[in-house]
Specification:
The chain is an alpha/beta fold and 214 residues long. Helix content is 33%, strand content 14%.
């Protein structure tokens, strides 16, 4: 692998979630770590993608990797760059689309109730206390999930799906209407562990190492 990779984080908007992956990429690729808070306030996912694209003057990306909410940003960013003659490949890491009838958390207070989400809220509070994230930005990103639908023009995309569960945002099926030619890989890993678990990281690196779409 010798590529330029843009890394788009989850709705928290801070690239800390990519720490383990970045450590594996050292000497193998140039990684651009994106923080959404650099561009806040922005007008929705499309506005965020446009700001990220306009703020880069280095090598064109070979890959756009989006984790969770970052996959939605990645869809818009890849579409925007292709309009400009740049054709990055897109890797969605356990990104989910809201169900057609809504559902799912749109406020941070709705996430309380499990150890995993309690840890997530602790992370947000710590990053906010350090001045690394704006809580208003985090809340706004969470509210953008339900109404988002990606462009139908995306190609050369791969989706790595984690453990399937019941409930809103837990099925990969909605993606097929928008990314019908997307490669699909599945790993038996919980959503919150997708960028920390060894088997999930190996799946990500395997796709990034591939010369052809998985």
């Amino acid at each position: 692998m010798s590529a330029t990779i843009w890394l788009l984080p989850d709705f928290i908007g801070h690239p800390l979630c990519f720490s383990a992956l970045v450590a594996r990429l050292v000497g193998r690729a140039e990684a651009r770590l994106v923080s959404y808070h650099r561009y806040w306030p922005y007008d929705g996912i499309v506005g965020l993608a446009r700001a990220v694209a306009e703020d880069w003057h280095g090598p064109e990306p070979d890959w756009i990797v989006g984790y969770s909410f970052g996959g939605l940003v990645g869809c818009e960013l890849a579409s925007l760059l292709r309009e400009r003659g740049v054709s990055p490949r897109l890797l969605l890491v356990d990104s989910r689309l809201g169900s057609a009838d809504g559902g799912g958390a749109t406020e941070l207070t709705q996430l309380v109730g499990s150890d995993a989400y309690d840890q997530l809220l602790d992370k947000i509070e710590l990053l906010a206390a350090l001045g690394e994230v704006d809580r208003d930005c985090v809340e706004a990103n969470l509210r953008l999930f339900p109404g988002y639908r990606p462009p139908r023009t995306l190609h050369d995309a791969t989706l790595i799906a984690g453990r399937q569960e019941e409930g809103p945002y837990k099925s990969m099926a909605p993606w097929r209407a928008y990314l019908s030619d997307a490669g699909l890989r599945q790993v038996d890993v919980a959503h919150q562990d997708m960028l920390a678990d060894a088997s999930a990281l190996e799946a990500v690196l395997s796709v990034l190492d591939s010369r052809e779409r998985a």
